[in-house]
């Protein structure tokens, strides 16, 4: 009954704020055990599709010509070190943020974004940081972050809850992972960022090992009897 009432409420919702409220109710019910995993994911997909339809009917009101926005102009996002950004992006994408079947649908830049998003969901339960912060950590642009989240939402992997405020700067969106396959992958994966692991010293090195004692019990050396054994270089993984 709970799932059926929510499904009817989603179909009857006419505003984004109402849909955001219903999204919150869905996950509250899931936490309380009122809806199963399959039911919660089905409702999340239905809500995402309904939100797309509602958003398409909204006609934004533009600012009249000659009037400036009440918000300051957004500064251009220019990386201080482009090579470091590219290296960070590749390291995050190569760390395996998604199962291979899902990762094949995203680009390298999008995979880096989804790694940052997955780390936030694993540590805090949801991603609450801004698009600019995700872009800085992933080494990509804002538009790449928006593209990655939009693609993941269209595939039913995540839900996006908008937090709009009238006359004020909007709060960061709340992004939750609803794909059980992705959630299980995150739980099995490493908890440390690949960037922090890369900074640690790697094991390896050479060490001169002590030679075996060649003196027999009678006090004579085996070398005197023609044994030409010599100390050998061995690989030591502790250095």
From TrEMBL:
<feature type="compositionally biased region" description="Polar residues">
    <location>
        <begin position="209"/>
        <end position="223"/>
    </location>
</feature>
<dbReference type="InterPro" id="IPR036388">
    <property type="entry name" value="WH-like_DNA-bd_sf"/>
</dbReference>
<feature type="compositionally biased region" description="Basic and acidic residues">
    <location>
        <begin position="224"/>
        <end position="239"/>
    </location>
</feature>
<dbReference type="InterPro" id="IPR036390">
    <property type="entry name" value="WH_DNA-bd_sf"/>
</dbReference>
<protein>
    <submittedName>
        <fullName>MarR family transcriptional regulator</fullName>
    </submittedName>
</protein>
<feature type="region of interest" description="Disordered">
    <location>
        <begin position="193"/>
        <end position="239"/>
    </location>
</feature>
């Amino acid at each position: 009954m709970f799932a059926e009432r929510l499904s009817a409420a989603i179909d009857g919702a006419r505003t984004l704020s109402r849909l955001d409220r219903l999204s919150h109710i869905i996950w509250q019910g899931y936490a309380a055990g009122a809806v199963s995993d399959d039911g919660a994911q089905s409702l999340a997909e239905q809500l995402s599709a309904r939100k797309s339809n509602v958003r398409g009917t909204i006609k934004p009101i533009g600012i009249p010509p000659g009037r400036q926005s009440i918000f300051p102009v957004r500064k251009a996002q220019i990386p201080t070190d482009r090579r470091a950004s590219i290296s960070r992006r590749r390291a995050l994408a190569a760390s395996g943020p998604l199962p291979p079947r899902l990762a094949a649908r995203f680009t390298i830049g999008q995979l880096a974004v989804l790694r940052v998003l997955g780390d936030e969901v694993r540590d805090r339960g949801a991603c609450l940081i801004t698009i600019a912060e995700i872009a800085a950590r992933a080494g990509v642009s804002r538009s790449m972050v928006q593209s990655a989240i939009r693609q993941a939402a269209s595939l039913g992997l995540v839900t996006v809850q908008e937090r709009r405020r009238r006359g004020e700067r909007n709060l960061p969106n709340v992004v939750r992972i609803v794909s059980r396959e992705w959630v299980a992958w995150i739980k099995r994966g490493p908890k440390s960022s690949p960037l922090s692991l890369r900074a640690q010293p790697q094991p390896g090195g050479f060490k001169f090992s002590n030679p075996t004692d060649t003196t027999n019990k009678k006090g004579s050396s085996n070398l005197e009897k023609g044994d030409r054994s010599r100390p050998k270089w061995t690989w030591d993984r502790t250095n």
